[in-house]
């Protein structure tokens, strides 16, 4: 089962890379872009009996390895889950 993990900085954490992207976009004429928050994307291939089990395992992996819980949050998408 494929699980997508999207890791982003928490809203209260300053994102200097996102700020640099906004400034570059503004200098290119894209003044309508108000904010950019950058992050990380992971695809996990998980052998699990159900979408719930795959999600639980992916959450454990994200908590322990993929995200820094002090400054980052994450969301999961399980392929084929409803």
Global shape: elongated
Q: What's the SSE pattern?
A: EHEHE
Count of alpha and pi helical runs: 2
CATH class reads Alpha Beta
**CATH arch. level architecture:** 2-Layer Sandwich
Describe this structure in words.
With 82 residues, the protein is of the alpha+beta class. It has a single domain, classed as Mth169, Chain: A (2-Layer Sandwich). Helices cover 34% and strands 27% of the residues. It contains two helices and three strands. The chain has helices at 16-27, 51-66, and strands at 2-9, 39-45, 72-78. Strands 2-1-3 form a three-stranded antiparallel β-sheet, with helices on one face. It is elongated and about 50 Å long.
Note the topology:
Elements: E1 2-9, H1 16-27, E2 39-45, H2 51-66, E3 72-78
Antiparallel strand pairs: 1-2, 1-3
Structure characteristics:
three-stranded antiparallel sheet; 3 strands; alpha+beta; elongated; 27% strand; Mth169, Chain: A; 82 residues
Write a compact overview of the structure shown:
The protein is α+β, with helices and mostly antiparallel strands and 82 residues long. The chain has two helices and three strands; from the N terminus they run E-H-E-H-E.
